[in-house]
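FYI - complex with 6-O-phosphono-beta-D-glucopyranose, inputs then prediction.
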Amino acid sequence: MFMIFNAYETLYYLFQFLIFMENPKNLIFVIFGASGDLASRMLIPAIFSLKTQKILPEKFAILGIGRTKISNEDFRKKMSDAIVSYSEEKVTDQNLISGFTKDLYYHSMDSISADGYLELKSRLQDIDTKYSIGGNYIFHMATPPSMYEAISVNLAKSGLTNQADGFRRLIIEKPFGYDLESGRKLNKTLHELISEDQIFRIDHYLGKETVQNLLVTRFANGMFEPLWNRNYIHRIEITSAESMGVGERGGYYDTSGALRDMVQNHLLQMVGLTAMEPPSSLDADAIRNEVLKVFQSLQPIREEDVPSQVIRGQYTGSLIRGECVTGYRYEKGVAPDSRTETYVAIKFFINNWRWGGVPFYMRTGKRLPTRVTEIVIHFKQTPHHLFQRESGKVSANQLIIRIQPDEGILLKFDMKEPGAGFNVKNVNMDFHYKDLADIRVPSAYERLLHDVMLGDSTLFSRDDEVETAWKFLEPIQAAWANNKAIKVFGYPAGTWGPEHANDLIEGEGLTWRYPCKNLADEELYCEL
Ligand code: BG6
């Protein structure tokens, strides 16, 4: 084990070195929706952090775009406050902040209407000339998805996506469409305007260190990969649990639900990296081709099988540690009779040589007892049980890849209890990422925005991946839309979702892994 983690460490340093050694070419970073939450909470603090690490381009400026009419100075002040409030590390040095915000500009316009784009172009040219940028622009759409098409069309028509004078890249936030049809339509529109290598579809899970580490765990360690298949693995479980509710995002979430919000992107990407074949290189397309093959091998869930393979739920009000927690239907922006799922659990198979017959399970939900994302590899039991277990139950090895929090890897295996006889105890071998000396783990947005600046699309979803993911979910969406008899199970906030989700797990007495206990006092539902 010692050897493995040393290898880890070496690879990690190498990876960091390779990724972060480069400074991108000079550029202007344009944010549509600059007065919104995403810009303040994620984008600006992430770019500021790149500045403090000295890995921004030598000549760099940000142009924020929004409808609100504010001056450059007001925008700088707002973003300076955002850096203080939302940076991962505490920032107190005002000089450092103002050294960054001096290169921030603001432009007020209605980005839906084509009218303002010539003015935008000349504003960009002014900044470009002032900084001697050389025509490289990145446009980040931090707007509601309904604006993506109009902005892309307007940018293209005004010549701003034309790469004759420098690179022009577009960053798009999820959701990439609402279903297969709209996902295809969005891709088609974008492709009519620009080429695929100009498009960067952000799935922030791919920017998480531990998600990328899955590749290293699997393909840098001789001991895991030979076991990584149907001969040794009994089942695989992927969980992304959140303890928070929908908060202020009820309006958006009620039109989305867990399937679109989490499964179509984050969970399926984790499935892809867990199940893929080794890529021929670390090239963006080599990796994405393998992920795509996994998506293409997902056994379609037939509409009639949806009730037995997919469980959906919605949190109800409950009492957690003495406090009443609001039920989903009472959240701001949510319809009082909403049937939107805040929880979904799916059993599925991957029809290929490696995984034929191995059940995969994935679940995600809001208002569960804790925030945890993990991938659990359940190995098969030994063929003959020689020893007594302390619990009386036969156990099997588990490899738990903790994506967040407390990033790391836990291996559960059996050891002899000291003393007479052969009593066996299940023990943990636990590696915590934080033990890798004083390395700072970059936030997902830092990593991803830096990659866009470098033009590296490895950690971004490609058009065909997005569409294939939608295709897999299509029958589930259709069944829920067409068959009102399919239940939306209520679950008290603070619990692990509907108990019916355990019925999905094949094998007597087997359940999902529960990293911690329910928090809700199930005897005491609130009135909410
Ligand atoms: C976002 C979803 O993409 O991911 C949110 O829209 C969710 O609903 C979030 O809360 C979870 O991200 P993380 O990084 O906190 O696991």
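Confidence is low (pLDDT under 50) at residues 1-10, 12-18, 522-528. The radius of gyration is 24 Å.
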